[in-house]
Amino acid sequence: MFDFLPPALILLAGALLIGPTRGVLRTAVVLVFPLLTLVAIWQVPDGVVLSLNFLQYPIEPIEGSAVRRLFATIFALMAFGGGLYAYRQARWYELAAAYAYAAGAIGVSFAGDLISLFLFWELMALFSTVVVWCGGTPGARAAGIRYAIMHLLGGVILKVGIEGVMVHTGSIEVQPMLANNFDTWMILIGILINAAAPPVSAWLSDSYPESSPTGSVFLSAFTTKTAVLALILLFPGEPVLIGIGLFMVMYGIIYALLENNIRRILAFSIVNQVGFMVCAIGIGTQLAINGAAAHAFAHIIYKALLFMSAGAVVYRTGFNKCSEVGGLFRTMPLTAVCGIIGALAISGFPLTSGFTTKTMISQAAANESLVVVYFLLAAASAGVFLHAGIKFPWFVFFQRDSGLRPKDAPWNMAVAMVFFSVLCILFGVAPELLYAYLPYPVDYQAYTPGKVVFYLQLLLFSGLAFFLLLPLMRRTETISLDTDWLWRVALLRAVHWLAAVLARLGAAVKVLGDRIGRRLGTRGRALFGSDTREGEQVHGIFARAWPIGTTALWIAVLLTAYVIFYYLG
Amino acid sequence: MSASRHDKGRAANNGNEVLRNKDDAWLARPSTIRLLWRVFALVLVASVVAQLLFKVKGYFGVDGWLGFGAVFGFLACLLMVLFAKVLGWVLKRDDGYYRKRDDV
Question: What's the complex ipTM?
Answer without folding.
Answer: 0.82
